[in-house]
Amino acid sequence: MYLANISHEQMSCSTYSSLSRTSTNKSKILHKSPNLIQLCMNSDENYACCTMKKLFSTSCHYSLNQCDQFGCNILMYSLRYQRYRLFDILLNEISFDLNIHTKDQENNTILHYAILYGGNNTQIIEKLIEKYKKFAMNIDERNNFGFTPLLLDENDACCTIKKLFSTSCHYSLNLCDQFGCNVLMYSLRYQRYRLFDILLNEISFDLNIHTKDQENNTILHYAILYGGNNTQIIEKLIEKYKKFAMNIDERNNFGFTPLLLGKTISFILDSNGSKRILIG
């Protein structure tokens, strides 16, 4: 779940300190990408874009192809943090030595990231596919979970799932990855709510909703965490829990029940001036 669990603390030293050092060093130095990656986290995208352009207009040589411990490079992080202008600059203005063949530790390609984090910005995906075609790259490479980038697109995923379970072939929805997560959890993790609804209500005949991940999070924990303001998801899931006499108050390894988790998130959001519907 590296796509989901990347934190600021997992990055290397401060961008600002590294940039100040390079301004006094006129020799040609190869700088590690994690320092540049922190530009993707900067809340001011204008600053990040200007800084990136300035860095690559100097005589110093910076590498855009260095990856962090998760196998992610700066292009992936620009998508991960929705820095779309920065992504465009990297891909189209200073891409002379940028390796777009890079894959992270879960074998996700740049195109997987574009599908996951590109939002409704179809231009990003179109431009990236143009690059793939230019270099005769395969756009249908699968990650460690068997997903091609296009399968991560919700419309394609819904059609594919329905087609698979309308045939005589037998597919298991209960297989879990190394983190103990099954397809139902991932449909919530990546906000694929239509897919979640299809899995839960249309082809759920052998779906085990008792599954817990390695941290003992239940499907209901995931619904609270990733369901956003889509209360219908939580309501339908609670109906299933009641139908099978399941306990909705199971605690994860951190002592949180789904309800307590929901109230904690609500409190944090309310403290920041956001509104959220409390569950229960």
TrEMBL record:
It comes from Adineta steineri. It comes from the Eukaryota. Gene3D superfamilies: Ankyrin repeat-containing domain. InterPro entries: Ankyrin_repeat_domain, Ankyrin_rpt, Ankyrin_rpt-contain_sf. SUPFAM superfamilies: Ankyrin repeat (SSF48403). This is Ankyrin repeat protein.
